[in-house]
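hey can u check if this looks right to u? its 302 residues, i copy pasted from the old doc so theres a chance i mangled smth
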Amino acid sequence: MKYTIPEQEIMCSGHKACQGCGATLAMRYALKALGPKTILTLPACCWSVIDGPFPYSAVGVPLFHTAFETAAAVASGIRAGLDMRGDTETNVVAWAGDGGTFDIGIQALSGTVERNDNVIYICYDNEAYMNTGVQRSSATPWGAVTTTTPARHFKQERKKDMIGIMAAHSIPYTASASVAYPEDFIRKLNIAKETPGAKFIHILASCPPGWKTAPELAIKLARLAVQTHVFPLYEIYEGRYYKLSMDPKKKPLIDYIKPQGRFRHLTEEQVAEMDKQVDERYDRLKEQAERSKSWFEAKKEK
């Protein structure tokens, strides 16, 4: 039997993650795709705890713990050092949460992708600063409760379009992925690994404590995020050409938000507003994908 997911396990047991942690599964899949010739940079985030206390590490590859804002900058430095030694085979990966990507690390990330440095930047997005007590980030969706946006003053701003920001830098490859669809996840990482230049992968990583959900629902919720169009799976080539990886028939949004305590305060009218925002974004994405079809057809013919 031919497996689509590599059997090799690089990440080991003994990590410090919570039960049902999507970020931990994301790392496991990523390392399966990237292989042992990989160096990680890791800023302050959940994974700086999950990895384990020094001198122990669960990832099984060289790892640099860096300051909160510097994951991309350190990755660029590691890439430059490897290139000077003639090592073009080792993958250099910046691995950061949404706080260290959307907010605190966006300056260094923008510089890295503007220079088109040959690194892979992976954001595992659990939609808040989970490691420090579930404070809102700019990745936190509209309507969500966090410790800094309580129910009476839930988050009023829409989630930042980080993939759109990366695409605006015209980098070779940008994509979204989910722990609920490992084959799609690993396929995209394989593309990133083989594509020269800067690559950005945005992963939705469910978080039971922060989302106020049961650990056993982690994968189901990640899957529903895709099926309700909350978190579409798509790719962008050269910052301009969009392609939907999946285009599922939309399931009711309530299926996704009802099991999550962070949305329990929302009224029917507020849920309808959230649904409207989801539809607006998905419709724009489908239009962009439709306009890009001719480019992909021409590329296939070549």
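The domain at 22-301 is CATH 3.40.50.970 (Rossmann fold).
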